[in-house]
Amino acid sequence: MSEPVAGPAEILGSAPVIEALAALEHERWAHWQRYLHGQGELGEDGSITIPAALVGRWARQMATPYVELSEDEKESDREQVRRYLPVIVAAMRGAGDGTCCRH
Q1: To the nearest 5 percent, what fractions of the chain are helix, strand and coil?
Q2: Alpha carbons 83 and 95: distance in angstroms, whole number
Q3: Residue 67 belongs to what domain range?
Q4: Most CB atoms within 10 A, among 13, 21, 35, 50?
């Protein structure tokens, strides 16, 4: 008798896959923070002041549903998603055996 095959939710929710995706998310966040911090002006107290033009742009983007973004803005989001796909594809190919996430 064969073992039951794990479904997508079990595979993608497994600890190795979650850890691999969390590591990618941290890299994405750290990259964004480096960019964000580089755009602002460092104050004497260690705070960062973000230029009003960027605050306005990002506020508009935050308030805009994805389908209403410009094609360039959508492509920027797609680029981020593409970073996660190799882990997801490898996890599905490995059927939850953890091989997607071994370094």
Answers
A1: 70, 5, 25
A2: 20
A3: 9-37+47-101
A4: 21
What are phi and psi for residue 79, nearest 5 degrees? Answer: -60, -40
Q: Which of 102, 103, 100 is nearest to 6 (CA)?
A: 100
Residue 93 pLDDT = 87
What the block records as the tokens of 85 is 């796909």
> Is residue 1's pLDDT more than 70?
no
State pLDDT tens for residues 44-88. 999 999 999 999 999 999 999 999 999 999 999 999 999 999 999
Number of helices (H), then strands (E), in the chain: 4, 2
Token pair belonging to 53: 């033009």
